[in-house]
Give the backbone structure.
Amino acid sequence: MVQAQSPATEVRSLPRLNEPAPDFEASAFVGKGFKNVRLSDYKGKWVVLCFYPGDFTFV
Amino acid sequence: MSVDSRFTHKIWQEEELSKMVKGGVPFPMLTDAGGRIGRAYGVYDEDAGVNIRGRFLIDPDGIIQAMEVMTPPVGRNVSELIRQVKAFQHVAKTGEVMPSGWQPGKPTLKPGPDLAGKVWKVWKPENAF
């Protein structure tokens, strides 16, 4: 179990290939509105999950 | 997905992205407040308080088939991403494998004892580029 109060000693690594992607629920802006999205909503489809540093940045 | 709020995503879509892509980007823009999800994927930078560039290709069973992780200054290659999606879809459908440099429409390989040691006959290094 990861201890949230000791970030300096936490080992956080990339997930493993060929293993289940960690499921999550996140609020999102979609089309013209807001909704909550779960990764598991996309079971049965190919999913590209992209993280990026921030809106309005340059790259 | 970034640590920005859904409100920031909305304004970014309306003020900038919709001027690059007609109608705006067609996919959900997800919020990862505090980097909770980025931590689960190993891409949250605690010092900077943002997620670095991490891209995960997840198959219909929810299994991670590919990933690419980069520090912020360099952007991604969308053509390569699309190539990988098509390649993994082809593997899932046929069991065939893609040699280095494979593009949709190019020859695939059928793994098996007959091919062992004989790849040189059907694949040349120049095919990698």
